[in-house]
Amino acid sequence: MARMKHETPIFALILALAVSLLSVGPAQAFLEPPARFDFAYPGGTSVFYYPQSEMRARCSKLAQRQLPREPAECGVARIWKNTMKRHCFVFISERYKGTETAELLRRHGQAHCNGWSHPYRRP
Question: pTM to 2 decimals?
Fold first, then answer.
């Protein structure tokens, strides 16, 4: 029975690690844009950070429809008023500013500017 006491914490640790990997993995895979859309936007890209509380309204306006959940980012290609040329605008929740996730979100948004679309995930 003493042996079981030592194995239980190890089993719990392995189970917790597996659950955390499963919860991070699919989100990462969802954010990762396909290679054929993962390139610099020809007209340039600008990234803006906003409070999470503003992201749904801002991205819904860009998408021209009400989004079902709070997005972490959104990206859209529009005419840049200063140059009258197409430009990629990516909006990211400021909670990701300075993180590795911010770079992934930038690439995700830029891929949308490059023509990528995907169905929205349910929360």
Answer: 0.70
Instruction: Spell out a b/e string for 34-53, using b for 16 or more CB atoms within 10 Å of the CB, else e.
Output: eeebeeebeeebebebeeee
Taking the domains of the chain in order of start, what are their residue ranges? 32-113
Q: Are 21 and 103 in contact (CB under 8 A)?
A: no
- Of the candidates 95, 90, 56, the one whose C-alpha atom is nearest the C-alpha of residue 74 is 90
For the chain, 123 residues long, give each residue's pLDDT as a single digit of tens: 444 444 444 433 333 333 322 333 445 666 789 999 999 999 999 999 999 999 999 888 888 888 878 888 888 888 877 778 899 999 999 999 999 899 999 999 999 999 998 766 554
